[in-house]
From TrEMBL:
Pfam families: vWA-TerF-like
Chain segments carrying region Disordered: 1-185
Compositional bias segments (type: Low complexity): 14-176
InterPro entries, per the entry: vWA_TerF_C (IPR019303), VWF_A (IPR002035), vWFA_dom_sf (IPR036465)
SMART domains assigned: VWA
Protein name, UniProt field: VWFA domain-containing protein
VWFA domain ranges (all copies): 224-403
Organism this protein belongs to: Dictyostelium firmibasis
Amino acid sequence: MKPGQYNIPPQGPPQAGQYGAPPPQAGQYGAPQYGAPGQYQPPLGPPQAGQYGAPPQAGQYGAPPQAGQYGAPPQAGQYGAPPQAGQYGAPPQAGQYGAPPQAGQYGAPPGQYGAPGQYGAPPQAGQYGAPPGQYGAPGQYGAPPQAGQYGAPPQAGQYVPQPQYGAPQAGQYGAPNQYGAPKAGQYGAPPPQAIQYGAPKPPSMGGVSLVKFFDHVRNHYARDYTLVIDKSGSMSGSLWKQAETAVAKIAPFACQADPDGINIYFFSSPSSRHPKYENIRDANTVMGLFAREKPSGTTDLYGVLNQAINDHFAKGNKPETILVITDGIPNSESDVKKLIISTTKKLPRDEDLSISFIQIGTDRSAAKFLKKLDDDLKKQGARFDIVDTCTLEEMKHLTFEQLIDKSIYD
């Protein structure tokens, strides 16, 4: 190019060797000669096993321990391995001992209920513990009484019993006891006592039967108390003295139970009216009666019982306990049996009248007769068993006075 001429730039891309051209290709002048001896050749791909940088192989230093080698995690069943389900130390499964209680099981947190019928389930309507006012189905607990059941209001046309005699008066059967709330063994105290229908007979005292008269007196039942005393000729002498002493002991206790005072009948030979003394309240009066009455004649037990029973019904069937003291068989055994059987058929309740017989003396025929009164009358048609007895053999060789001591004082 001559001086002064315009420098025209070369046309096209720079050629090899010119400024700005790409680096020389392999084989061209200036290109690096790779692969020549002594020169570094870069590795092609990842390092192969055994080359520097390759991961260590199993068994080489640095390789992870294989199963069974030192440092390897314990396998199932080896020492140190976590216990499997069911092995000792494994957490208990549901239902096993030690597992947390499931909903509805005993020990589950309060408020978590099981299915209906399971433990912990809220009480269903009609079950015990259900909110009041929720009734079960008819016949279930809590259901309102159905028509005709106990507690249901009477239906139209049904009979509703009404009291026949009005409210009981003081001293009558069913009236409150005058000595305060009934004590154990008194009328009105649960469970049913000796004077109620179906109750067991009075208790015994060391083998000696406690007749109802003594049981009623010692427990202060609000009743009338009556003594019927045999003064026939066979009662003369020691037997009369025994009867006198025994009655003197009985009277104070009987008067405490009977605020109106006791009644006393004496009987011997048949009479239109045997001697009767009413409203006796102290033992001194009783002793005076024994001084007035003298033993003689026969044994009209039927006549005096008939008189006492008629007086009982004349008073309106007020509950009464009668004690008969006798030493021999009556003039007519059959009449006595028939009288007692017919009397039971007039009584609304067996507790309305009780007759206790005590044998005094050693007449075995009398003991046999009294046992028949005690044991056989229901078989012969009596509605209730209103008779009980204590005979010579049942006294276990006690005197009448000793029997009273055991019956009332013990």
